[in-house]
Design brief:
With 438 residues, this protein is of the alpha/beta class. Helices cover 44% and strands 13% of the residues.
């Protein structure tokens, strides 16, 4: 996503450097097929790690309390921290063979931990962890190779946020997002910027995270990575993505380069979308609540132009994973099932970890959430017929992609390199990072 996550990712890269020296048995994912075993009647303690704010901590503790009440012999010992500290701690724990039983995991890092044998293949838990109410593409998003190493805590999809107040002031109608084209997008953003006279722009810039690039690739019959985690995106695909951004910036449909770079560094709350200075902006649909709150406007969630026929995919907001070294896989399965399939947990959590991937749970909470969260849920429901196969998870070595994109987007916007040169260099660097981590 956008904003402060670049700084956080830098911390995550350091954590992965530590992870590369993990003392783990085996060189690949665990392949146990023994199943979860039997639930113990004796006291069992499970350790659990997650990142997040105070709200998430409070919600998680309430879920733990509810689970422990239903299963008195099982105790959960949670540990949480902020994003940067979380990955450093997890790498240290894993290197010491002391990985928590239950792990909140991120898409950028799941393949690294899975490939080093640190994560349990959740498919070995069988019916103890049910996934029948999950879209198959949401389940597949947690696969590394042939194993399932993470189950989506929530799902999100790439989208475009529209500010109705700016559209109204500019005298421009909000487009039909099921029929509009990129040509329509260019015309609309030009009209809005002209009406704004520098007060607001048609669109904010993109190019600082990989969600937009992945969708652009899918629209152009391309992919960022193949199923083996190899970088396969074509140079022309990346070039045209930056070409469009540079054109819109030069023509004034997007803000000047310096303003875009400055705003991007301020995070979500300082973005052109959140400060009512852009009519449109690329975001994950699950960010509509935070953006609406920051802007004071009821933002609308739109599809990107020409997005249909399987070009969309479900991105996990985060995963639930488990340690391959857990001695209590049956109890782990029971708790994970409670987290993702239980109405009691859902009533506590609502959308705090994203829109539930479990479609029955999503329907269960639909009437209990805020209007903006309802909009996020409705967007996913409307999108369901156009969701294609899952994206390949970020391979080991690929977690620094946002830093690479930021570097080359800045160079393109400032005219320091051409889009073609930037595309070639970006692919070369990302490929080297992935190959060196293999």
């Amino acid at each position: 996503m956008t904003g402060v996550r670049f700084t956080r990712r830098a911390l995550g890269i350091a954590a992965l450097a530590a992870t590369s020296a993990l003392v783990l048995s085996g060189c690949g994912p665990s392949a146990s097929s023994s199943g979860p075993g039997e639930l113990s009647t004796e006291p069992v303690t499970l350790t659990m790690s997650f990142w997040g704010n105070d709200v998430r901590q409070g919600n998680t503790q309430k879920i733990i309390d509810a689970f422990e009440k239903a299963h008195p012999n099982i105790s959960i010992e949670p540990s949480y921290s902020d994003w940067g500290g979380y990955w450093d701690k997890l790498a240290t724990e894993t290197a010491a063979n002391n990985t928590p039983d239950i792990i909140q995991m991120d898409e950028k890092y799941i393949s690294t931990y899975a490939d080093r044998g640190a994560l349990l293949d959740l498919s070995t838990l069988g019916d103890s962890l049910k996934t029948g109410d999950f879209p198959q593409s949401a389940v597949d998003s947690g696969k590394v190779g042939d194993g399932l190493y993470g189950l989506s805590a929530g799902v999100t999809a790439y989208s475009m946020m529209a500010n109705p107040a700016i559209f109204k002031e500019a005298g421009v109608a909000i487009p039909d997002d099921k029929t509009w084209t990129w040509e329509d997008f260019e015309k609309i953003t030009a009209k809005i910027s002209a009406a704004g006279g520098g007060k607001f722009y048609g669109t904010q810039a993109w190019g600082f995270e990989d969600g937009g690039l992945r969708l652009w690739a899918r629209q152009n019959d391309d992919r960022l990575y193949d199923k083996d985690g190899k970088v396969v995106i074509k140079q022309e695909t990346v070039k045209t993505w930056w070409d469009q951004l540079k054109k819109l910036t030069d023509e004034g449909s997007a803000p000047p380069a310096a303003a875009s770079i400055e705003k991007q560094g301020g995070g979500l709350s300082e973005s052109f979308t959140a400060t009512n200075q852009a009519a449109l902006g690329n975001w994950w649909n699950s960010q509509v609540t935070a953006l609406s709150k920051a802007s004071g406007q009821q933002l609308q969630v739109l599809r990107l132009p020409q997005s249909s026929n399987g070009e969309y995919w479900y991105k996990p907001s985060m995963y639930w994973s488990a340690s391959s070294r857990t001695e209590h896989s049956a109890e782990v399965a029971l708790f994970l099932d409670f987290l993702v399939n239980g109405e009691e947990a859902a009533d506590i959590q609502l959308t705090e970890r994203g829109v539930p991937a479990n479609e029955k749970i999503r329907a269960h909470i639909a009437s209990k959430v805020s209007d903006t969260d309802k909009a996020a849920i409705q967007f996913l429901d409307d999108l369901s017929g156009d969701v294609g196969e899952a994206e390949t998870v970020t391979p080991p070595g690929g977690s620094g992609i946002e830093a690479l994109l930021k570097k080359y987007t800045e160079q393109v916007l400032f005219g320091q390199v051409s889009s073609d040169e930037a595309a070639k260099a970006f692919i070369k660097e990302l490929t080297a990072d992935v190959q060196n981590a293999g």
